[in-house]
Design brief:
482 residues; alpha/beta; Rossmann fold; Dihydrodipicolinate Reductase, domain 2; 2 domains; ten-stranded mixed sheet; six-stranded parallel sheet; 18 strands; 23% strand; globular
Length: 482
């Protein structure tokens, strides 16, 4: 233990050292690790182990307490900035005024946290959110070691790792384990309602096929490097800006967008990436950051050496932006992932924004989140012709009335040549709350693995094939243009 603490940098708050010492010393002496291993096999109580948390999403899965989940969470990580930030988030959840959590954190700090976790195994579920380089190796080792995993996207950030992803799912299926991706966007109310209307032919018609130049699906996701999370500025680790560790836009955020296209267009259907996906083109470009901007979000005084290849004239070229066009069973989709440094001053809240357009033969379904929407996502139904407006309005009102049993209070308003689907605030629970919804789904699958949909694993393979192929196409495009 002393050897571990000698590696601790004084650049970090001494409070972290105290927290780590107290947590380690609080490990129960009356119960051996062997006894804990035996108990962890009983899925009547889920026991969480968090591995090397380096992203705030690792904390958000603990924003709530869950029935049947032990309040004691074991964290395996190197002692440093990432661990300190993670512990602060959990402490904030425990100490908040409204509905505080009751997590008890056991800290196992030191070198090779994966090996130590697999050797000690005080839990039966591993959660991960952090460095994406090598993440699939940690996932694969955990699954092959007999552990269920709940992991933040992306699982892989380059095509070379795709065979490891395939092997991981084969291992999970053979061992009857749950390996689950944290896809929060499926819980967003505007997306849920958009999906409902895509499959209402009297409103939407049939999905168009589109083309490369005129895609039938367009999704744009704009994020901001400087942002506020859980009420506090989000300080990002410097490695976040190394695309070799974090991944580029299409391979990272793009996982959400590809997942939505699959989930919305072909619900509960198995997608075969070998037959159903055709990636057509890709593009990548940087967001340029000055050193003061970089320091503001990292607290670092200089660019680390591992970023030097992308520092030009004192500024960092952060290749976080990407675009791709592909066809899924013949339906052409275009995706744009954009990272701006910060939100415009006029934008209330400074959060991420989302645009999603699906074109049907009768109308288009559009989620927009701009100034007109007061930066909240809103869903519109836009008839393809003015002559069909009355017919589509009547069909839309009938569909919305049928949805009242699930979404009481949802309504329709005319807005010029389009219709706004009005959504009560009670359904607008926000991005951070969606992590708890994903966790609840995951816990249900743990307790009854037979309830895991047959399409989840193959569709994850299709998703990651699409994103990594799109990134590969982006590199090819950049090389060809030189």
């Amino acid at each position: 233990m002393l050897k571990t603490f000698r590696k601790f940098s004084l650049a970090y708050p001494v409070a972290l050292l105290a927290v780590a010492i107290l947590a380690l010393l609080s490990l129960p002496q009356s119960e051996s690790l062997a006894q804990q291993k035996t108990k962890s096999k009983d899925m009547n109580e889920v026991k969480i182990m968090t591995l090397d948390p380096g992203h705030f999403h690792a904390g958000l899965v603990q924003k709530e307490m869950y029935p049947g989940v032990s309040p004691r969470v074991h964290v395996y990580a190197p002692l440093g900035f990432d661990l300190y930030e993670h512990l602060k988030r959990i402490a904030n959840f425990n100490n908040r005024k409204d509905s505080p959590t009751r997590w008890e954190m056991e800290i196992h700090a030191g070198g090779d946290p994966l090996a130590r976790m697999l050797a000690e195994r005080p839990g039966n579920v591993v959660t991960m959110a952090g460095r994406n380089q090598g993440k699939i190796d940690r996932i694969k080792a955990s699954v092959e070691g007999g552990l269920n995993v709940l992991v933040d996207k992306p699982w892989i950030i380059n095509a070379a790792d795709f065979p490891k992803l395939e092997a991981t799912f084969k291992a999970a299926e053979s061992k009857k384990l749950i390996a689950y991706d944290i896809m929060t966007e499926r819980s967003e109310i505007t997306t849920i309602l958009q999906k409902e209307l895509i499959h209402a032919p009297e409103v939407f018609g049939q999905m168009q096929k589109g083309s490369e130049s005129d895609p039938a699906v367009y999704i744009e996701s704009i994020h901001h490097i400087l942002k506020v999370v859980a009420g506090a500025p989000n300080i990002r680790p410097a490695w976040f800006f190394d695309v070799k560790q974090q991944g580029e836009g299409v391979a990272d955020v793009g996982t959400h967008l590809v997942d939505l296209v699959q989930w919305m267009l072909f619900p509960e259907q198995v997608i075969d990436y070998k037959k159903d996906v055709n990636v057509i083109s890709g593009k990548r470009w940087p967001t340029v950051m000055s050193l003061p901007e970089f320091s503001r979000v990292t607290n670092e005084k200089a660019f680390p050496d591992y970023l030097s290849a992308n520092v030009k004239d004192g500024k960092l070229d952060y290749y976080c932006n990407g675009a791709m066009t592909y066809a899924l069973r013949g339906v052409h989709a275009k995706l744009d992932v954009i990272w701006n440094y910060e939100a415009p001053a006029a934008q209330s809240g400074g959060g991420d924004t989302h645009v999603a357009i699906f074109k049907g033969t009768k109308s288009s379904l559009e989620i927009r989140q701009g100034k007109e929407e007061n930066w909240k996502p809103e869903l519109y139904v836009v008839p393809n012709s003015s002559s069909s407006k009355a017919e589509i309005l009547a069909a839309l009102k009938k569909k919305v009335a049928a949805l009242q049993s699930k979404f009481a209070g949802v309504g329709v308003e005319e807005r010029g040549n389009r219709f706004l689907v009005t959504i009560p605030d009670k359904f607008r629970d926000g991005h951070e709350a969606h992590f708890a919804e994903v966790m609840r789904r995951f816990l249900g699958y743990l307790r009854d693995p037979k309830t895991l949909p047959a399409w989840e694993n193959p569709n994850m393979l299709a998703k990651y094939y699409t994103t990594t192929k799109g990134l590969e196409m982006g590199y090819r495009s950049a090389t060809a243009s030189k």
